Prior knowledge:
The protein is of the alpha+beta class.
Amino acid sequence: MATAGAASGWLKGKVKAVPSGDSLVIMGNTKAEIPPEKTITLSSLVAPRLARKNSDDEPFAWESREFLRKLCIGQEVIFKVDYEVPSINREFGSVFIGDKNVACLAVDAGWAKVREVREQSQQKAEVSPFIAELLRLEEQAKQQGVGRWSKVPGASEAAIRNLPPSAVGDPSNLDAMSLLAANKGRPMEAIVEQVRDGSSLRVFLLPDFQFVQVFVAGIQAPSMGRRAVHDPIPEPETTTLADENGNTSTKSRGPLTSAQRLAASSASASSNEVTPELYAREGKHFTEIRVLHRDVRIVLEGVDKFSNLIGSVYYPDGDVAKDLAIELVEQGLAKYVEWSASMLDDDVKRKLKNAELEAKKSRLRMWTSYVPPVSNSKAIHDQNFSGKVIEVVSGDCIVVADDSLPFGSPLAERRVNLSSIRCPRLGNPRKDEKSPPYAREAKDLLRTRLIGRQVHVSMEYSRKVNVAEGPGAPTGATDRVMDFGSVFLPRDGEVAPQVPPSAGSQQTGINIAELIISRGFGEVIKHRDLEVRSNYYDSLLAAESRAKAGKKGMYSGKDAPVMHVNDFITASAKKAKDFLPFLQRNRRMTAVVEYVFSGHRFKLYIPKETCSIAFSISGVRCPGRDEPYSSEAIALMRRKIMQRDVEIEVETVDRTGTFLGTLWESKSNVALILLEAGLAKLQTSFGTDRIPDIHLLVQAEQSAKRQKLKIWENYVEGEEVSNGPTSERKKEELKVVVTEVLGGGKFYVQPADQKVVSIQQQLASLTLQEAPLIGAFNPKKGDLVLAQFSADNSWNRAMIVNAPRGVVESPKDKFEVFYVDYGNQEVVSFSQLRPLDSSVSSSPGLAQLCSLAYVKVPSLEEDYGQEAAFSLSEHTLSGPKEFKAVVVERDASGGKVKGQGTGTILMVTLVDEEANESINSRMLKEGLARLEKRRRWEPVDRKQVIDELEKDQEEARTKRLSMWEYGDIMSDDEDSAPVKKATGKR
């Protein structure tokens, strides 16, 4: 057998398709994404013809094609065009695999015969250069009776395939639904006969030779377009090939034969063809070089409404079976489509989605111009920490005390939202909101598994949450940022590593988010493309699939258990008192600490009675809010008992509806823990005979005193030290000027010092620009701006209290502003606003809200309220007069400043030093205020002040002035009773 050398005209290529037993489609060896290709018919050979429309195979046609297909498909070959026949526009040539002549191999196996050689043809050289060898091998095959020369009786008839109608041009007879029902989920052997586009194939299903079209499940490749209704024979097209030395040659190709049309019909270009979509040719070529005329396995997944078969296609690559859908998506040559992906397993769907995300990130091919949607999420990198879980807020949110931060530090408690999951949120009893199904179950699962346990946290992303402004929205609500991460709980007996597992590494311990999802107590968030998500997102999706398959939790189809809880915290004190006997008869009961109000006061849930109560430890008192060591006491209790199972014994109930008694956690008296830490004091007025373990409590307090711990740091033997608001403290006196009167005894003051002058000078030095352009300046609620005061047209620092929804549309748009240096508030137009320069925005507002101490002034809506406000204005605003303000107490219950009348209030005695008289006294003398008799005004150091004020009030009462016109105005019982503080989260 002659070998192919380096003679001129020989080309290299790879066999892409084998349309018949005597023809090959060879593509060139170039770096182009779609290399040129050429169809070569083996010189001087004739192979049996395969069946066409309404015709049968010639004998041995299938075996002939299969011999050549298995021999050549995907192989590197060298070839040479021996001659052309212009009349039929075909090229005939010699093809070698290594040193073996393909034509000789086919003839030797008996699957092709040598074309009859005419003398005329010989003169035109329209014969193979190896004609003599071919004739010798043919004669040898005939003598041996191999292949088509078989001498077995009936062999020719048996070598004709019995084809179903679908294989001979009548696909309407194919019952797609029956075929699917018989083979769904079962791998079927097949040979791909044609590739219409990257995700659409025509195949023979073996062994029955059903000829079907299969759409690859889960994906869609760009369309190759469609031919016109009247489709003429394609015009000849130009093909470029490269030889071994890189030189190119141009050949023209005429109309395709039937075999060639089957192999490359959708690749032919003509003026009657709709233009293919971008990257359609690349997708088609990618699929062709992997599956065309190759053995594949097809798993039928479903049928669409047009009876088209949908399936997964797997092709061999060495010893590995590859999924064509995933390969196409990874290369950016197809997109994920949900309608057919829904037929696939969840694991395959996840792989396809992830492959598409990676292609989008890399902007591969069809995603070159992809622009990811705007996301409000931001990745968090390298923020891993370990700590103890001290609170479970809901099924997808916990609070972890960071071990690396000091105990009691506000930053030590880190709120972690579990990444990429969403659980039902508990309702708010105060707003009559009921908890949705499985909200309590989700929270209880985490509480029983996590509270007090050491966990590792890997922070993954943060997200800005928009809090809607409208009916039901919190007052002054703004956007807030939430942090999300994965939390891992070490398994029993397992020592957790110092660093949490990273993305892609093997998980160590139990992924809490996966635990919740697997129980059916939550769902996985469907993130948008390229949105930051959990590093373990695939595991979460797998857990969700298991929960759905197992019909767990919210997927069970059953109604969630309903639990009615009696809330005695929001109920009246009388109702709590009526319930006391039911709690006393049980003696010790199990309870769950739901919230820590202070070091000694808690919200408890009692499962046996299905009720929530306010509970205070009897005999001890921790520092109150804003007192020294209050936060440390709360932090200690949150770590010790928050959401733990505890035991309680209720002894009585006070006038506010708070139950008093003893509380144990793990058989330890919690009062003893507080006293030993120096965070509480004994209150023996309760009655020592009613306090369990009183001798131990006394010893604990004495020990803390000796060590001068916390509240006892200034303790001196024999002296009583107090840390409450009633303790003796150094008087705080301020020089102030009153700037605004609100009514009800409330007013704003400015410090009478250089701060005011400095701010005024800074504002005067600013060069104010013209009114800002619409759209360039969009002040929002809470922003600091410059506003023009309507009374004198001066420019002052102000905070936006209310603003129009959306962007500014007109210079006349109205904004409500609060002047932070004066305390007054008004509505101005957009044209009266300017951006605030950073040089004057850093200094805090000078206006301080104050209220007259010891007295109660009627509000503007009450009788004599208007008169009282007018009188207070006359006394304080009649001139630029300075006053001395003696601070009696600071009330921080108003929270952060959000507008007029909010924020910390200074309870003051306002003294007019020129008249040597307090404004508090004047208001009482005029009968426009009355003395407030709450217990907070009763300490010994203030008794003299109160006695003097009582004389002033008695004087007005005797003279029947103003509010005393008709005698005693009302009872003071509501003042003397303790004030019931609002419950809720700190």
